[in-house]
Design brief:
This protein is of the alpha/beta class. It has helices at residues 6-41, 43-72, 83-101, 106-124, 140-148, 194-206, 221-232, 249-262, 305-367, 372-378, 380-392, 399-415, 418-433, 442-464, 473-485, 488-508; strands at residues 127-134, 166-170, 178-183, 210-215, 237-241, 272-274, 282-287, 293-298. The protein has three domains: 6-72; 83-337, P-loop containing nucleotide triphosphate hydrolases (Rossmann fold), CATH 3.40.50; 368-508, no CATH class. It binds guanosine-5'-triphosphate and magnesium ion. Guanosine-5'-triphosphate is lined by residues 136-142, 155-157, 159-162, 185-186, 242-243, 245-246, 276-280. Magnesium ion (MG) is lined by residues 140-141, 153, 161-162, 183.
Amino acid sequence: MRSPTRYPYAALMVVLLIAAIGLAAWLVSSVNELHERFARESRGLGLAFLVVLIVLMMAGAIWLGRLAWRSRAPKQAGTPVPADLIQAAALQAEQAEGVIRRVGDEAVRAELNRELSEVKAGREHREFRVVVFGTGSAGKTSLINALLGREIGKTEAVMGTTQHGESHTYTMQGVEGTVYLTDTPGLSEIGSGGAAREQEARELAARADLLVFVLDHDLIRTEYEPLAALVRQGKRSVVLLNKTDRFTDADRDAILAKLRERLRGLVASDDIIAGAAAPRPIPVRVQRGDGSTETILEGQAPQLEALRERIGRILKREGETLRAGNLLLRAHLLSRKAQDQLSKERDQKAQDVIEKFQWITAGTVFTNPFPALEFLASGAVQFQMISELAGVYGFEISASNVRMIGTEMIQMLLKLGLVEATTSLIAGIFKSSLVGYAAGGAVQAVSMAYLTHISGETFADYFRRGQTWGDGGLQAALIHQFDLTSRAEFLQEFAKQAVQRVSSKLLHGTPKGQEQPASRT
Ligand SMILES: Nc1nc2c(ncn2[C@@H]2O[C@H](COP(=O)(O)OP(=O)(O)OP(=O)(O)O)[C@@H](O)[C@H]2O)c(=O)[nH]1
Ligand SMILES: [Mg+2]
């Protein structure tokens, strides 16, 4: 159905059209009248009027044409960066800063802060990081040497020539700002230090605004995987098939076609380029002055125009957007790294809490030989341990809640028969390897300490998951912990440590604050 609001609009258009036709008719007749008046004066004057009129009309047409062309032609200076991208990057950096502030390890915090200031500084400076990445000996350093036109790094046929990443300023015509070309060690190097060098290369690649992935043959799995992972992360990438001087044109085209097919959906076909960073010299026959001929090796110029042109075009058109997108990605990765560190530190603190309470249990049961079950049922240790673990994971938990989950745990230990099962397992350990200590409630002390250990681990999981026992409820969570630690080796080590602590306390009465942390098993 036609909307009634359109009629006034259509009527207005008709009126404007009639007015425009009227104006044009008036203009034509006025100009005509003027021309006639001049012509009446003299023929020459009439002719001059006509010439001026034609010149003016042509100038007007040219001006209008240029105006239209400028509004249609794509902007050469690069598309403006979406404001929300810049804002998102700033917000993400702020969030990362908040997480980093909570990291306890000073050295790690300093390293994260260093990365954060790099990300923040990146917002202010117009800098583009082009990182050259790929398998060892693919020709990465040769490529940088050729692009810069000077030798900045050693190139050799053996893998592992470049040991560390290095950045160099690269002047690109038409690109506003500073471009850094970064050389990286090769991927998949076998031998000493290869893995660490690969890790460094991956970290440098993760910071790139633009990645140049260098290959010297068809793509193999160890190349496809890191490239695909980086592209999926949002890394803008160009692939260079290097050393094409070694191939016939037909072979080069076949490899290019295969690469384009393999990388379809990941890298645009225009971004997969052939070139030769350091083509081998070719033998040529030259004639000597005396008429004889000799064969000499003639050096070949690098063939990198297509790559150079592509990099320039990308930086000009998308550089700013890439930079903002990359800052967002880096801030996001930084946040995640800081979050992982926080989790690691929390888990470490939780382990310290569990160990503290398991050894308190061992000591208490050993020195007060009341029935172990009674001790367990009193919840004396369990409740305090729950409160401390909740604190480690940032939860405030009421006393009644502590009591509720503590009691639930004790009942489950009893229901599953874990008290008897543990006691008999520990008794077996004492019989086989700790014969001398079997007397005096040691078995009971170690059994209760072990039950404190597995309930502590289960509570830690509960808080780590955001106060839930997980899919199978408390029963499954507790059995899982028991299964993880009821192996003979773990129990033997656990019993040994418990006995050492309990007996050293009994013999010497370890002064407060000098307790040795138990080694993790
Ligand atoms: N034929 C030919 N050889 C090349 C070309 N580019 C590089 N090379 C040779 O390939 C070998 C390895 O080159 P590099 O530049 O050292 O390779 P890289 O990727 O930096 O190696 P790593 O630093 O070990 O990871 C050297 O012998 C180069 O001369 C090329 O376009 N054609
Ligand atoms: Mg190298």
